[in-house]
Hints:
Layout: E1 6-10, H1 16-25, E2 31-35, H2 47-64, E3 68-71, H3 74-87, E4 92-93, H4 99-105, E5 110-115, H5 117-121, H6 123-132, E6 137-142, H7 146-151, H8 158-167, H9 169-174, E7 178-181, H10 190-197, E8 202-204, H11 207-220, E9 232-236, H12 240-249, E10 257-258
Parallel strand pairs: 1-2, 1-3, 2-9, 3-4, 5-6, 5-7, 7-8, 9-10
Helix pairs in contact: 1-11, 2-3, 8-10
Amino acid sequence: xxxxxxxxxxxxxxxxxxxxxxxxxxxxxxxxxxxxxxxxxxxxxxxxxxxxxxxxxxxxxxxxxxxxxxxxxxxxxxxxxxxxxxxxxxxxxxxxxxxxxxxxxxxxxxxxxxxxxxxxxxxxxxxxxxxxxxxxxxxxxxxxxxxxxxxxxxxxxxxxxxxxxxxxxxxxxxxxxxxxxxxxxxxxxxxxxxxxxxxxxxxxxxxxxxxxxxxxxxxxxxxxxxxxxxxxxxxxxxxxxxxxxxxxxxxxxxxxxxx
Length: 259
Ligand code: DGL
């Protein structure tokens, strides 16, 4: 048994979509969440910048004493996962776009991937597609602006729907029946994406898969917590009051996360 918290980090509040899956699967675990808000978004930054921010973020969590870290950011995983594993002597779990389950789920053989430019240009993403999407056409769209909308708590309404109609036009034209939400901010836009794409399209993210992976890693190391209900404590490199306001606006998180 290990009562230390699990560290989770993202460029901003997007990784809370992963934290909520972890909390739902492992409710006894205390979670320490770091939002690197002062440097958000990561998607358009250089690989070197994303690596430097990832090392700084995990360093902060490590110094506070966490038993494992979940990199709840596809962009940081793509740029920095191996580096983080080499730097820190605790389990570091990454998160990748759900290309494999999407390739298995599609009935028409056409899958869309929404992700940041940083994720799409990473070698890790190229490997993911060539390994798991053979025989399936993959239409990847970089989605600039969506992270900023979620960071502002704008997950429904005209702004979100307007941006998504434009960004998703190529996926509608391609006739995909399955879309990967390949950035941890995007599950907060799930209803808006569904509205734009129509109900016949399946939307997949990786939150539950990473929670299951974490469960196995902690179980194998006999490092699960056994205390009363764990909560999410939040840290941010940005303005804590502003981040707390957004967290309150994001569905289902108000009672869970405390900045
Ligand atoms: N939420 C992140 C991801 O999963 C990063 C978004 C960003 O900062 O651009 O890719």
